[in-house]
Structure formats: C-alpha cells, structure tokens
Design goal:
- The chain is an alpha+beta fold.
- The chain has two domains: 171 residues, Chitinase A, domain 3 (Roll), CATH 3.10.50; 135 residues, Chitinase A, domain 3.
- The chain is built from six helices and 17 strands.
- Strands 9, 12, 13, 14, 15, 16 and 17 form a seven-stranded antiparallel beta sheet that branches. Strands 3, 4, 5, 6, 7 and 8 form a six-stranded antiparallel beta sheet that branches. The protein has a two-stranded antiparallel sheet with strand order 1-2.
Amino acid sequence: MRIRPFAALSVVAAATLLLAGCTGSADPNATPTPTSTASSECLLDAQPGADSDAIEVTGNGADLAATVPDDLAFEGVERTIVTEGSGDDVVSGDLVSGFYTIYDGSTGEVLQDSSETSADDSGEVPIIMDPQQYSLFVAALECAPIGSTVAMSIPGSAFGEGASPVVIVAETTDFVPTSADGAEQDPVDGMPTVELADNGAPTITIPEATEPPTEVQIADLKEGDGPVVESGDTVFVQYTGVKWSDGSVFDSSWDRGQPSAFQTTGVVAGFQQALEGQPVGSQVLVVIPPEFGYGAQDGHELQNETLVFVVDILGVQRAAAQQ
C-alpha cells in the first residue's frame, strides 16, 4: 500500500537531522557520520559506498527509477554519482530543476516522485537547495554538476528512532533563474513604484502624501508564460516587503541570498491573492491592508501595518494528492 504523499513530505522535512549532524548541532550518536569536505560550500558531501553503489538506476527525466536491493546495510549516509553532468556544481541556496523518486529502503516502495507534484506533464519540478526545509535534496544534490544523476542511501536513524531507511534517486537539469523573466508591463498609476537592481532585487518607493488603500491592490510588473499557480501549490519566489507607513524593508529573500518556498495557503490572505492565478515568470506588486495581512495582532511587528510586496514567481509544485 502506498504511503500518502503528505507523509512522504514529512520524511523529507525530517532529513534536517542529516545536515544538523554534519554541523555538530545534533547528537552525533543519533545520526550517521558522513565524510566531510574542506569546501565551505559543501554541507555534507556524502561519499559513495557499497549500498549506494548497489542501487540500480534506470532511465532519466520522467522515467528516472531505481531498483532497491533488499540486502542494503544502511550503516551510513552514502551517495553515488551515477552519471556526472557537465554544468556548474549545485550548492546550498541554489534553485534548480530536476526529477526525483524517494523509496522506502526497507520495502522498495515508492514514497513520492516528482511527477506527483509537477505542474505539467514533464514530471520536472523546481528544487530549492534549502538546508532548513529541504535538506534531503541538499544532501543528495550538493556539490555535483548540473546534469548529474545520483543515488543516495540513508539509514533510518537519520530520521529518528524506529524510522525506515530511505533511498533517493535524483537528476538535475538546469539552474532556475532567480528573478522573474516575464514580459514587462506598464506601471499602474497610484501604486508604489519599483526599481530593479542589476540582479533583479527591487527597491520599492511609497507614493508621497497618499493614504493606503483599504482593499488589496495587485499590479503585474512582469507577465510570465509558465504554469499558473493554484491554491495549495508550493511556490518558489523571490520577494521584498516594505511597510507603507515608512517604506522600511521588513523582510526580503534577496537579503538572505536565496529564494524561498511556501504553500499559498500558508501565507496571509493578501499575499495568497497575489500568488494564486499568476503564471510562473511573473513579477507581482501587491499592497495589503492590515485586514488582509496581520491585522491588529498585539505585539506583532506588523500590527496594523499596510504591507507592500514585490514578488518574483520562479517556479511551482502542485500539492500532492492524498491517497
């Protein structure tokens, strides 16, 4: 019986233990001890071993698959680069596209594959190399050239007491642009103005002597032609948010140096409105009154604030259907 996809996502989230063990922030007795690297860009740099070498990988792209032997020892985290790509190395913070399948190492059962959340028939998905949220993919794909296919074996101890081991096969195809590449649109009168730096980072200027709106206002700065974001999707974005009251930046993925990913249903109502219905490649300007933001939450930094965001929509994954 297949595990429901949302349960498989919990497995992915639990893999933060892998990288925590590498940095020394977790109990070393609770996680494997992979071979480390001298490069500051490689957080884990797992090495090949008998288990990862024994995983039989077939196909590529949407047909990528593996046969999981039933006699793997799972004594440590192992990674074998099955085919080496010719592009630049993937490192933490990158946003890439690719394919993957995750297996239960004990049974060989598929837990989840990229075709379940791909926004089109290709089976390809964006993958963010975020060690906080998606460390399983960081461990599998880091420090391997774009275009590589990898096989990785992970003991259950990496996920907690009593957990099953996991096998993942993954292939990267390209780096995803970190700023929107859609067609530029005419500015909307009365909205904040936006200037873009060479790297795409926005500077937002609030119109002087203008009262903030009482309803959500949305303007397209660029219009993409990719898949359209649907409710419940996970979106991959760059964004900057400022307060209407003084124009100060309160949050920015640009300042953190990497894109962000979150479900459309996990953000404030005004932000959700700005995302859903937009095609990938778009850049959106949205003004969010307090009622559609953080309202009058006592003690919140953004209490009673009207918020202004510029959001670059870089990629999307569909919500996996529960089975």
